[in-house]
Task: inverse folding
């Protein structure tokens, strides 16, 4: 099975935060940040797998600092764990403010992406190159187990919601 260094699929995107994406306080809407995170995670995942995929979930989403109109916004995504047909992608969004270009961490999240590939596809494994990458990889199994537990505990609620929606469609 192939192994790739995390840097081989690292994806970085930089944009200017603009008024069309802002609320009345001139802060970029959280949904726009989530869109940028999802878009960058998808590109990172495709770079890693060679195939497209779908985002199955976003977990541990943290909005840490507002993103103001005019900020330089950098979204960075790396693969931090792999399964048979899925991978975890860690996304960070940084902003650079004003004339100082002070860099501030504004957003973090973990996305789970599932590959859309032939049945014989083998997910490349990953190799950390830095201490923070090693730390992120070391926590993957625990994060994966927590997500599975949360899904199982929420399953009965989802069934009720689905039945309600189906009833509305009758």
Result:
């Amino acid at each position: 099975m192939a192994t790739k260094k995390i840097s081989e699929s690292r994806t970085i995107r930089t944009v200017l935060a603009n008024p069309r994406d802002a609320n009345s306080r001139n802060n970029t809407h959280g949904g726009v940040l989530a869109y940028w995170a999802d878009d960058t995670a998808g590109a990172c995942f495709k770079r890693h797998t060679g195939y497209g995929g779908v985002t199955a979930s976003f977990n541990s989403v943290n909005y840490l600092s507002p993103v103001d109109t005019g900020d330089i916004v950098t979204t960075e995504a790396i693969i931090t764990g792999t399964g048979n047909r899925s991978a975890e992608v860690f996304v960070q969004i940084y902003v650079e403010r004003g004339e100082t270009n002070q860099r501030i961490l504004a957003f973090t999240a973990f996305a789970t992406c599932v590959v859309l590939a032939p049945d014989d596809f083998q997910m490349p494994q990953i190799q950390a190159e830095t201490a923070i990458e090693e730390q992120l990889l070391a926590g993957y199994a625990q994060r994966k187990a927590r997500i599975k537990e949360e899904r199982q505990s929420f399953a009965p609620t989802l069934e009720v919601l689905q039945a309600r929606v189906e009833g509305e469609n009758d």
In short: The first strand starts at residue 3 and ends at 5. The chain has a mean pLDDT of 95. Residues 3-138 form a domain with the Thiol Ester Dehydrase; Chain A fold (CATH 3.10.129.10). Strands lie at 3-5, 11-16, 53-63, 72-82, 86-97, 102-115, 125-127.
